[in-house]
Design goal:
This protein is an alpha+beta fold and about 475 residues long. The protein folds into three domains: about 120 residues; about 30 residues, no CATH class; about 280 residues, 3-Layer(aba) Sandwich (Aminopeptidase). It contains 19 helices and 16 strands.
Length: about 475
Amino acid sequence: MLAGASVLLPGLGHFYSGSRRKAGLLFLFDAILLSVFVVSVLWYRLEVVKLWVSPEALMVIMAFNLGALIFRSVVALDSYADVGTDGVGGRPHALGAILIGALLVVPHALIGFLAYTQYDVVTTVFASPDPVAAAVTSTTTTTDVGPVVAPPNSFGSTTTTTLSATTTTTRPVLWDGLERLNVVLLGADAGQGRRGLRTDTTIVVSIDPSSGQIAMFSVPRDLSNAPLSEGMGLWDCNCFPDLITHLYDSAVKNPEAFSGPGEPTFNAIKGALGEIFGIPIHYYAMVTLNGFVGVVDALGGVTIEVPKTIVDDTYPHEDGSTQRVVIEAGNQELDGHLALAYARIRRQSDDFARMHRQRCVLEAVIEQTGPIEIIAGFGKLAAAAKEHVTTDIPQDRLVDFVDLIPKLDTSRISSLRITRGQYKTGGAPGRVYYDIDRIRVDAQELINDPEAAQARLGLDSLDSTCVESFD
């Protein structure tokens, strides 16, 4: 079974068969690869993660994986040939040959599956490379700075040399020139009986790239007369005279009214949110209800501290049916369906309690997602992402988001509660008007001076308020 030994560790079979020179070279190669792996994991872990979100790097990984499979196969066959008919260990039986083949192929098949699936997700879900960023790739330019005359040498002659200056330009990271990186997270519902697709969950996440401080704002779905960016819309009020949850569908029906760099639907949403909070919205990510369920299930569920029992006798299931849902108070392990129900139910409370629970569920999912959970549910996660997630984050900017990971601290999330009690200024049948100017002022203070804003507004960190009930 010396071929099997070489499959486990290239060179081992040669060593036992007496081919010590080959074994030594293979052991040296093994040591180099192992050293590179250990150093990468211990000291360059973030760079390894970046490889996993880069389409170009994933293609290299797939090619390297194929090359490694060919190399291991050649080594195993060479070890097998060295044994000879009556050599040490003898020829493997059929069962042994099958085991050797499995040890040889299965690891590479798994790595190939993971790499190809990740490549498919990155190139399918995320937007095409940023054309501006792509134009500013690493370049080296040489500039002629003119002739320089050297002093006379010992023979009395002079030398004239033309010098050039070399300048290297590298592509700036995502947030260069930005004080904040602002992303809107959307939960989309296009269930039965709905007026097109509705963005029932809208959460703006504003990140300070230098400190990792996060401000989070949930937008009430019943906010009416949301201001629109200049040149957008069809209405004299320069606003959207309907619930903001219907803005997406309005842009679908009137795309000419929401021109801009992206799709009309997201131009409308990003423009309106930018006006409300006084910040540019750089990117969006939208997931459907079924997509959220699929993501949580793929991660093995999520644990939530439920401060108060939640009951809905007629909860609308994702499949269009209704059912009775009870989520008891206490530390609960929820699957995707119940986690979504916890984030959606408002039968016994209101939108504002629901918005608070949505932020807490999002925080819990982020906190409880690690490499093990991602690898274990990778196939399901990829399928859910491809089918239910859309975003305009460019593929080539994912590495910049990876750089943010070590800086982010979910315990430092500041969250502004936009409630009717604090911000309502009036209304009309089916409409609720909010004090947009006041929302903008409070949001800006929370972004620029979170401690002062929390003290003035009586806010606690999101981490501490998730054990409170607003139902």
